[in-house]
Amino acid sequence: MKMKYLLAALLPLAAATSAFADDASSSADMIKRGAYLATAADCTACHTAPNAAKNQQFGGGYPLASPFGVIYGTNISSDKQFGIGNWTDDEFVRAVRDGVGKDGQQLYPAMPYDSFTKMKRDDVLAIKAYLMSLPGVHAAPAKTDLSFPFNQRWGMTFWKWFNFDKGELKNDPTKSDDWNRGRYLVDAMEHCGTCHTPRNLTMGMDNSKAFSGGDLGSWVAFNITPDKNAGIGNWSQQDLVTYLKTGDVAGKASASGAMAEAIEHSLQHLTDGDLNAIATYIRSVPAIADDKQTQPRDSFGKPATDVFADRANAVPFDKTASALFNSNCAACHGQSGGGIGKGFHAYPSLFNHTSTGAADSRNMVSVILGGVQRHMDQGEVMMPSFANQLNDEQIAQISNYVSNQFGNPAGATVTAKEVAKMRKAADLTYPPKIEDGTQK
C-alpha cells in the first residue's frame, strides 16, 4: 500500500482557492497553485518510495505491480542528475500529457498519461514550478526492468494507437461551471477512471463502461456510476462529499485499500467547492448495472445473535466461524456487528456497508489480511492486520461468515486457496516471520 507522508506545505491548502483560477501573476502564487494541483493529481502516490523521509519526497522508487512485472516510480524531484532539474517545460509537459520521456522513450501507462493528457498546459507547468521549488533528492530509484517483450518501450506506440486519445479537455458550454470543473478533476487530475473503469484486452481503459468498476487484483475498485444497486445511485451529494473528505459515511461505507490512500494523500485536501464539483459530475455519468448486484450494496445484512450463544457455551475460538468472529472482530465491531461508537473514530457497522454488501468479497478479505490505516487531518483511522494471527482457512471462514450474516451472501464463496493467493500478493506471511528469518 502507498503509505507515505504529504509534505507539510500541502496541508494548509484545503482553504485554497479553486485550482482552476486564471494563471498566477507571480511565481509564489504559481508554486502555491502547483502544490494544490500536485495534491489533486496525487503525484506523491507513485513518485515517493514507501516510508520515505520527508526530505525524500518525489524521489521515486514506489513499486507498482503490473501483470507484466514491477514498474518503479521515477524521481521527479528538482535534482539535476536523477530528477527533472534539467528538464525544459516542453519536456515535462510531453512526459505528463503524452507519455514520452526526456530522451524520447515511451513511458509505461502506469503513469496515467491517458488521463493527464486532458490537463491544461498551464496546470502541468504549475506542478513543475512546485516540484522545482522543493529540495532535490539526489538518488536514483530502482530501475524498471521488465522481461521481454515488455521491456521494449517502443511497443507502447502500438498500445497508444488503441488506447490513447490525446488532447486537452475542453469545457462543455451546455453544462454548469461546477460540472465542468468536476469533470476536469475526475477525468484528468484525479484520474479516477484509472482504477474505477474496467480494462480491455490490451489493458487500456474500456471507456464504454466508464466508472463501472475495476479489477485491481486483490482489490475491487467499485462501480461509482449512479446505478442504484451496483453503484452510488442512492448516495446524496453530501454523502459523496463527506466520503471524499473523510473516508467514512455511517451506514454506507468506509474507505480502505487504494481508495483510502487517495483520500489520505489527495482528496481530503481539496476545497469543499472542488469536492462538490466532483460529486456533481460523477452523479451525472451514465448508470451501468451489474447483474450480480441485486440490491444496493449498503442495504444488506442484519445484526448477529449467535455471538452470545458462543460465549455462554464457551465455544473454542477456532471451532466455528461465529466463534472466530467473536474472538477476533466483536471487540471493535460489536457483538451484533453493528459497530461501536459514533463520529470520526467510530468502528463501522458490518451491515449496511458497501464492502460487505458487495457480491465480490475481495476487499473484505484484503482488509482482514492487511488492515486499514488512514492518516487524516482529523486523526488516525486504523484497523489491525490479522495476517499474522489467522491462517488462510480461518480468514476464509470469517469472510464467508461476515458475508452471510452481515452482507451479501453471494460473496460467501471465499476459499483458503484464494486467501493464500491474496496473502502472497500482499507479501504477508503466516506464521509470522521473526528476526532470524525463520518462523514461529
TrEMBL record:
Note accompanying the cofactor annotation: Binds 3 heme c groups covalently per subunit.
Binding-site positions, heme c 3: C329, C332, H333
The keyword Translocase appears for this protein: no
Residues reported in the UniProt entry to bind heme c 1: C43, C46, H47
Limits of the Cytochrome c domain: 29-135, 177-286, 316-406
PROSITE patterns: CYTC
Source superkingdom: Bacteria
Binding site for heme c 2: C192, C195, H196
Cofactor: heme c
Nucleotide-binding is among the record's keywords: no
GO terms for cellular component: membrane
UniProt keywords, alphabetically: Electron transport, Heme, Iron, Metal-binding, Signal, Transport
InterPro entries in the cross-refs: Cyt_c-like_dom, Cyt_c-like_dom_sf, Cyt_C_IC, Cytochrome_c-type_DH, Membr-bd_ADH_cyt_c
GO MF, any single term: electron transfer activity
Pfam families: Cytochrom_C
Secretion signal, residue range per the UniProt entry: 1-21
Protein's name in the database: Gluconate 2-dehydrogenase
The organism of origin for this protein: Rouxiella badensis
